[in-house]
Amino acid sequence: MTDTEPAPAVRETAESIATMEIRGAATIASAAAEALAEQAEAAAAADATASDPAAFRASMRAAARTLRETRPTAVSLPNALRYVLQRMEGDSVDRLRLSVADASEAFVRQLDRAQEDLGRVGANRLADGDTVMTHCHSTDALACIEAAVEQGKSISAVVKETRPRQQGHITAEQLRDAGVPVTLIVDSAARRYLDEVDHVVVGADSIAADGGVINKIGTSGLAVNARERGVPIMTAAQTIKLHPETLTGHTVEIEMRDESEVIDAETRGEIGEIAVENPAFDVTPPRYMDAIVTEQGQFPPESIVTLMRELFGEGAAEPWAEP
Amino acid sequence: MTDTEPAPAVRETAESIATMEIRGAATIASAAAEALAEQAEAAAAADATASDPAAFRASMRAAARTLRETRPTAVSLPNALRYVLQRMEGDSVDRLRLSVADASEAFVRQLDRAQEDLGRVGANRLADGDTVMTHCHSTDALACIEAAVEQGKSISAVVKETRPRQQGHITAEQLRDAGVPVTLIVDSAARRYLDEVDHVVVGADSIAADGGVINKIGTSGLAVNARERGVPIMTAAQTIKLHPETLTGHTVEIEMRDESEVIDAETRGEIGEIAVENPAFDVTPPRYMDAIVTEQGQFPPESIVTLMRELFGEGAAEPWAEP
Amino acid sequence: MTDTEPAPAVRETAESIATMEIRGAATIASAAAEALAEQAEAAAAADATASDPAAFRASMRAAARTLRETRPTAVSLPNALRYVLQRMEGDSVDRLRLSVADASEAFVRQLDRAQEDLGRVGANRLADGDTVMTHCHSTDALACIEAAVEQGKSISAVVKETRPRQQGHITAEQLRDAGVPVTLIVDSAARRYLDEVDHVVVGADSIAADGGVINKIGTSGLAVNARERGVPIMTAAQTIKLHPETLTGHTVEIEMRDESEVIDAETRGEIGEIAVENPAFDVTPPRYMDAIVTEQGQFPPESIVTLMRELFGEGAAEPWAEP
Amino acid sequence: MTDTEPAPAVRETAESIATMEIRGAATIASAAAEALAEQAEAAAAADATASDPAAFRASMRAAARTLRETRPTAVSLPNALRYVLQRMEGDSVDRLRLSVADASEAFVRQLDRAQEDLGRVGANRLADGDTVMTHCHSTDALACIEAAVEQGKSISAVVKETRPRQQGHITAEQLRDAGVPVTLIVDSAARRYLDEVDHVVVGADSIAADGGVINKIGTSGLAVNARERGVPIMTAAQTIKLHPETLTGHTVEIEMRDESEVIDAETRGEIGEIAVENPAFDVTPPRYMDAIVTEQGQFPPESIVTLMRELFGEGAAEPWAEP
Amino acid sequence: MTDTEPAPAVRETAESIATMEIRGAATIASAAAEALAEQAEAAAAADATASDPAAFRASMRAAARTLRETRPTAVSLPNALRYVLQRMEGDSVDRLRLSVADASEAFVRQLDRAQEDLGRVGANRLADGDTVMTHCHSTDALACIEAAVEQGKSISAVVKETRPRQQGHITAEQLRDAGVPVTLIVDSAARRYLDEVDHVVVGADSIAADGGVINKIGTSGLAVNARERGVPIMTAAQTIKLHPETLTGHTVEIEMRDESEVIDAETRGEIGEIAVENPAFDVTPPRYMDAIVTEQGQFPPESIVTLMRELFGEGAAEPWAEP
Amino acid sequence: MTDTEPAPAVRETAESIATMEIRGAATIASAAAEALAEQAEAAAAADATASDPAAFRASMRAAARTLRETRPTAVSLPNALRYVLQRMEGDSVDRLRLSVADASEAFVRQLDRAQEDLGRVGANRLADGDTVMTHCHSTDALACIEAAVEQGKSISAVVKETRPRQQGHITAEQLRDAGVPVTLIVDSAARRYLDEVDHVVVGADSIAADGGVINKIGTSGLAVNARERGVPIMTAAQTIKLHPETLTGHTVEIEMRDESEVIDAETRGEIGEIAVENPAFDVTPPRYMDAIVTEQGQFPPESIVTLMRELFGEGAAEPWAEP
């Protein structure tokens, strides 16, 4: 390997991410952080980089770029890379290697327990006897409710079916299995049931520096109604969902999904020439969200930017870019 | 027939309404008003009532009660009866008969052109180039959009599918047929598309004296978001939808429909023991609705009570009740 | 008696009102309406007025002025006078007398049943199982809750003590006697309990043409919080509380009561030189009130002006003023 | 003259309005009402119409059309015509003529004292020591402030200059002449001074059936800020400003004025190719306006539609149209 | 003493706190921080811990636990422990001891001047001539007003009596002594007087990570009204009031106090079987609070979590827990 | 020079700032930071301070005070001094000198690229095809729009003229030169055009610790309307605009400018005795601002305090004050 050619372990991980052998936000992030540790190990042993701190750093950046390019739109992957590179420091290759190993290990260790930690934080917001409303399916949101049940609290749930893909059915099933009495409703019935609900709990696809929560389409409309009805609403999201590119003002592009999720071809044919739009997500402004619950504790959405900068850097530049 | 026994025409109409041979809000109302005119004709000819104004009035009230009982929950039926009985006046049977005939005819004549008149009023609120958003399927709401097209305005529509029964498909088809470009979305995508919309147009199942609009579930949540996004929203509803019982504080009972509309039995079986709730309607407070468009012109929801009292009486007592 | 000198019955009633032998808003109003009928009777029999319609009218206005002056700040008194004079019509003294007698009788008859009618209207807004919150003590507000109980609904109440005079204690006792479970709280605890409350029910001292509700100090702050928490709030008030002078923009002067209601002299002495202010009422803007419940039905506050004009005239001039 | 040819007096008035010899909302309305009375006089004397009620009515409609066409966009003109035709009734030409004469006279009499009456109503809303804020120049708004001064109240004013035509200068001068201390500010400074202001008082160009107030550009932005700062805002407008066409949903077209009012040609030339837009008016939604003050008393904007229908008819059809 | 047995000084302090010989949030916190410094001194001299950094750390944790257990619900006590343990660092016992001594001293030094520093910050927000409104009695809030007076500003106060315990009387007296003109009002009169007030100043019982301010019952209702009236509101609170357990989502339990504070036994007996609820505190959401004023400067409530983490750690674990 | 006498370079810079030879927020800040570096150089070479760290520090503080006093009201000047002094650290004069040199250089380097970096961040918030609204003239705001154009996005602008000084004309010209189609409007027309606008972009005169944005008069009223219309609004401001004195509660004094900017003497003379007020700036509360865009990334206004403390210290004391 040349001085900036990634180690075999990095190449393997990159390929597995690209082929989706490795998938899921947390699994990808974990693998990427570990690959960087292996790169550091390899670079510390390689002739070209073993005694040249600058070359070592360059090889780390190159490895990060290789990993980054496998999935340009994932959020957890660059967060893993940022976390580790951000903490790479030292004047010698040995210290550099050690700092990378430590950061990689810390990142993976936290990630392993993130959902459990987050669940406990969210559960602490819920009281015995509470009814929660859910939208879509989020394992982070479920972790909060399940942790509350484990704390011995009696929790009921109003579950929105969440068209077009009806992920509410999965949520209903998992809550049911956790012993939570479930009432299933269509999305349009949400406001009517808010008066019987103590907390709305949703997940997040990603979270922006300005406090906006990007989540399944319908979240923002639900949040506006929750505020109007006086019902607190929280987002449960691990910190790997924080979107550092938004620090520099970048907006998150909203995926448009296939129309067949909304209407089957036959019905559409009968109706005639219409357009069907199927955006996957929307953005909830911070003023309609009461708290973001992470494994690092809870935050008002307006201050999540501080956590984002602390964990993943200030975002003015990508740490894997050549200086 | 005894002095208070309804005329055969009344009995026939009552039966046809009861068996749903006669159905649809406007058709029922029309038939009821006409039956009262026939009752007046018969009573003016019958021995027991021909020369006794009090007996004539009693026979009219009895006929109204007979008609009223066929469908206790319809709104248009009692409105027709109220409209006519409210205008019955005179000291002689002849004048009473005449006033009933006139009121019946006026009511039917207005009803015949109500949707067309209402459509023009609603169309006047729309401008060339506007995009409207619709919820559910309402012929009154459609009449506004179609009248705007007939006025030569170019109108586009964002149509919410309106789970669980997807009446948005019917709306999409009819707008498409009227030459209106249609974009179909799931209910949860509404807030995201509000920024591209100039007016929200909905119908009403009924309208309460306190200005609340009872309409298909999801209307109130849409209205709250329309206000938050600064988009005007109007309800298109003929005056037969005004609910005079609400003058005396009665609330409108919201129908709960079958859970099979929301989830098929098989999926439900797989999920396990959950409840499914399927309310058909909700109530939008007047502060979230900009205008109610009727065939008598447009009104802020807060003043619809005045029209209700003018048309159908003050509601303290039912005009068919024995004094 | 001269042509404009009030009949003895009028003078007696005036004196009894002035000496507070006759008191209470409804009792005063009733007595005043009856006095006008007696004046009409007397004037129709007196030489100077028996055959001169203009003189008859002048004597009625004079009688009204005599009654009006006994209590310049009461609202129900001028409303009674307005109601009757407003309906005085005819070309002959006989017809004038009759119209006054009819109007007086109609007014008294309605007044007799007003609270009961109003109570039923308000009760219809409440549902079985509801918890209501009350402020101060209002027999109109209580009539709504008691009527709901009579309708077989199970109602609970959160009663604000209502400093400084603690009229909440009277409310608590009367609700308790009506079989309503009561929870007493201090005024400051209201917002905290709003989440457990389905309706706020208050009375009114008077109601202004712009929809403002003048009621016991603290009502407006409670209303703002009820709106923020999504809890509907209604004012229960007989139509004799409508304040026709506000039609012409007059504001209602708020009584400042003695400081000893707020703090006893000893404590005040210990504290030192402070001011104590003790306003009796405040004004709740119509946008924070959902409905005004009267014996004529319920109204959004924004349209109460229509009822006010219908019952008591358009207020541009006082009907007892000399033209 | 043929049976539907207008009387000479009508033709003269029409011409004077068309040539703007007669101008000003009130003057036009007065002249039009009087012309109709003269038409009635003439028609009652003319062969073709003297004994034919239908022909008489037709001639009145024709006269109204002639007057109407002189100024298609004025609001006060059709209001005058509506007011009179609306009150034309009777089975004989004589009764018809009389009803027209009476209506015409009543209209003119009210109009003569409208501003004074309105001023007193508005003044009653103000308290001694109040500071008011004004926007643009409105004699109706000024009438309120001046009447308050005449009532002996001490009033101060914060006057917005109201770009682009700086009508605030006229307001400042007239208030100054009335003894009101004036502070002049630029439009952008309004929010900052709202905290020192007790009432905002504006006029209206016209008022819509949905409660929207059409007034000088900038009114709506001021109203939104007044609400946010908790400062009450009222519109002072005579009832001839009510816009009956809006009953049927018509929106009021906003005049676009010349760009030279905004920027002089030279500066514009230096800047280069830009557009300049100069809309004259905007629409304030009723929820941001506390009261509309008219010579008939004050109304919440949401109920002005009732007054509009009472004065000028229900607007479903124009009373001068052939049936 | 064994390696983890607290030093005598710690045991004494613990006992004095438990017996409430030492009380008051600041005094307890000070004593706890000093006890830890004494523990460090003792542990550095004891055989078992003098040369074993791990044992030294364990002894510090044990001491902290001993102190913590004396008052499980106080906020300032764990904050003192967290502050010191958080800053304990070093590889040798000597460095550990030194870091504890430094942290303890810094904490106490800051605490000593906290109220004075905080007062100046709060005073800087007030302007000469301002009127402030207060709720309950808070020495931190008073410090702001008194500092403003010391800065030569003329300040007036509207003091809410604050039922049920009328702590407003104490506030009134202390402000009066500071030369501040005071007007005392009942709690319900607050909204009415907000229009005459420039700032609302309240204290805090504790402050949550989500920006919620826990303070005397009635604060949240006052804050909602202050926002509606456009009046800024600030919380004055030393940083020892920040509640680190809320970082992990824990909610603050609201004490229910005895009913006798609300109603005397005799009156209660007369009323009959009612419940009386007497919650001591409520939670004001951050969106209704403009600033939190601390001795470290002012913060929007939404960012107080950052200060909390900086001072007292990230709260994922209690620093005195065994790892 | 004595131990605390500033070096000649400092004195020269101070004089140039005082005489306004050096002006503009960024230029002043740059010069001040560089002067401190020169002072450090000089002090490290001077006898009295070369080997006495305490004396060296004292000379740095003295130099800072000299610079500070030249312009007591500028914000960027003390920020430069704070930034550098805040980072002065070390036990030896050599390390102290080096830390000052490094901090000075870092500060100047960041400042040089601040507007460009900030522009990119702001540009990222804009989308192709967006229309922006501007108020006044701000090079930071323009940088965002121009960067968006450079990114290839098509941007249009609605430019408020911004009375009284019409800086909108400069903005119009510069945007025009950048190829942005411009529509110029008067300030009062803003709300009407908000419906056609995707983003409002304004600059800032300074930004307070509580998230308030101090900017040209009219900004706050625009922001309130932008929120009401659902249009996002951002402030573009380099971090030298952050106002650290506000950390301690200080409010920013608003300059009152000459009345001749508002009205020429002649017109004023004609109007008579009026006051003219001409405040230069106003304060927009954080709840009406969506984001503050800086060269360090974007922040919700509620968390800008964190950046302020990070860059310029905690503000409890001025770092140039003698301890």
Automatic annotation (TrEMBL), chains A, B, C, D, E, F:
It comes from Halorubrum ezzemoulense (Halorubrum chaoviator). GO terms for biological process: L-methionine salvage from methylthioadenosine; pentose catabolic process. NCBIfam families: eIF-2B_rel (TIGR00524), ribulose_e2b2 (TIGR00511). Reaction proceeds via a cis-phosphoenolate intermediate. Pfam families: IF-2B. This is Ribose 1,5-bisphosphate isomerase. Its EC number is 5.3.1.29. The active site is at residues 136, 205. SUPFAM superfamilies: NagB/RpiA/CoA transferase-like. The keyword Nucleotide-binding does not apply. GO terms for molecular function: ribose 1,5-bisphosphate isomerase activity; S-methyl-5-thioribose-1-phosphate isomerase activity.
